[in-house]
Amino acid sequence: MNEEIEKNVYNFIEKPLIEHGLNLVHKESYNLALTVTYFYPINIKIRFTYEYVDMMFVFYIYTFKSEYVYKEKMFWKIFTEMDPSVVYAEIQPEGRNYLPALQKNSELLKRFLDLVFVQGNTELIQEILE
Question: What pLDDT digit, counting tens, does each position of 59-91 carry?
Fold first, then answer.
């Protein structure tokens, strides 16, 4: 099952990050979770973790002022700010059925990435993390 999950995480989460210019800096898969971390040259880091035991996605964005000074925010808060109709349960796996939630995260992530990286609205990240 982990191989299938890794493939789906790549297709739905990693691929959009790569397409928007982020670079893989860390990938770890083990019995309890799969974690991928991407970095963008303007000090933005995005980390997605699928915790198999708790059956949940942990999805964060970080901005760095220095190596030790940063702000972080969970993506579900960003997603609900972008679209108030988003319900937390929609973006979390339902038992072992993770694919619909992964697809919803992907859809919302792409909208966010387009706002920030395609339209050049990098100030949006600072506003979101305030």
Answer: 998 888 777 778 888 888 888 888 899 999 999
Let me know: does 35 contact 26? Beta carbons within 8 Å. Answer: yes
How far apart CA 71 and CA 83 sit, in angstroms, is 22
Q: What is the DSSP string of 84-97?
A: TT--GGGGS-BTTB
- Which run of H or of E encompasses 23? strand 23-29
Q: CA-CA distance, 23 to 19, in Å (whole number)?
A: 10
Tokens 């339209």 sit on residue: 119
Report helix angle 75-82 to 99-113, nearest 10. 70
pTM of the model: 0.86
Per the structure, the count of domains in the chain is: 1
Token code pair at residue 115: 């706002």
Location of structure tokens 């970080």: 62
- Residue 10 domain boundaries: 2-129
